[in-house]
Amino acid sequence: MEYILLLVVCLPYVDGATHTWNAYYTATTGLSQFPEFVAQNLIDGQLMGYFDSKTNCFKSQFQWMEDKLGTAYDEQQTNILQRHTAKFKNNIKVAIERFNQTQGVHTLQEIYGCEWDDQTGNLNAFRQYGYNGEDFLTLDFMEMRWITPVQQAMITTQKWNNDRGFIESDMNYFRSECIEWLQKYLEYGKSSLMKTVSPQVSVLQKYYFSPVVCHATGFYPSGIKISWQKNGQDHDEDVELGELLPNADGTFQKRSTLNVKPEEWKNSKFSCVVEHQGERILTEDEIRTNNPSATIGIIIGIVLSAVLLLFIAVAGFVVYWKKKGFKPVPANPSDSVAEKTKSQTSVNSDNDSGCGSGSDSVSHKSSDSTSDISSVCSDNSSDSTTALLPENSDKNSGCDSGSDSVSHKSSDSTSDISSVCSDNSSDSTTALF
Fold first, then answer.
1. Last residue of a domain, one of 213, 241, 276
2. pLDDT one-digit tens code per residue, 200-241
3. What is the C-alpha separation between 165 and 228, in angstroms, rounded?
4. pTM assigned to the model
5. Taking every annotated instance into account, which residue ranges of this chain make up the domain Ig-like (predicted)?
6. Distinct helix (H) and strand (E) counts, the chain
């Protein structure tokens, strides 16, 4: 039996001035075709690093990461996430036992990260666990304690809440180190991460009695606001806001649906307002089917055209059939036999043809032309910065980095990283249940 794993992740809302760094960890059981552990790092909604237990290697997804951080960065993240693999396997077994479940398909997920508003300076952080698609554990940053909605996680909350050093280490990481690294990532990859692409906005309606859809696509960054106005006043009744969705090119799309009666649409003036990065787009009178009579006329025209085409097709078939059925008597009977033989020879002849196609897989990476940062923390045993801060290790990660040395191009950037990593001794994100 084949399984399809659907990973549902709730992304925090991000406006035009807010930047985020997120880590997503997923452990599974009972899915032989799916890695037992998967880790993904995202910055402003874009994948910047990936690891799974099958390849057992972390891989940066941007060229600017290789240019700035060097191959040592991937090696450090590999070492950290290899340890996470073992601990997540243990934790999912513990969860299965606590819920008194049998072996089968189960998932354990963790999401953590931080947010920074580059205009107001406001900071935010989040960290939580989910088991089989339901909330399991959440770190309350206001109360500085772990909370849970299920009885099966009470043992873990008591264990972690009694360890104040464990919680304070998390707090220090999210309030300082996570934010500082988020800011550095934005600086390193500013050519791709700090770009601004305005949305393309369309107002769509299938029929005059159908809901009206305001669709914005192709914009970056992801923060966008879509609203409606009725006769120049804000209108939020009967409005359904769709989810933010990614496009293949790294941009985003979003839609808002207005459910309005045809007579109300005809007698009022509705407008879709899209706001992105300080730009305000107001769409008016761009919908073709907002006039019922016009729509009916279009429908009648289409029906008449279809009837006319059908009449022409029938007439053509009748003429063709009559011509095909008319066979004049040949002057010489032998001519008829020869013609019949020639026709059979033509029908029986075969033409062989074959098609072949191939495709090349091309990997595209964003590039940034600034200098390398290849130094890492001299003493970093913290896993609270998992998939965020490099960690020195004498162990062989098992990944082929393709390079035996990392070039040093910027002493200023090296000192910056050292100052951030100088005191990082927590092991918060690898805690056992």
1. 276
2. 999 998 888 899 999 999 998 888 999 999 999 999 999 999
3. 49
4. 0.58
5. 212-283
6. 10, 17
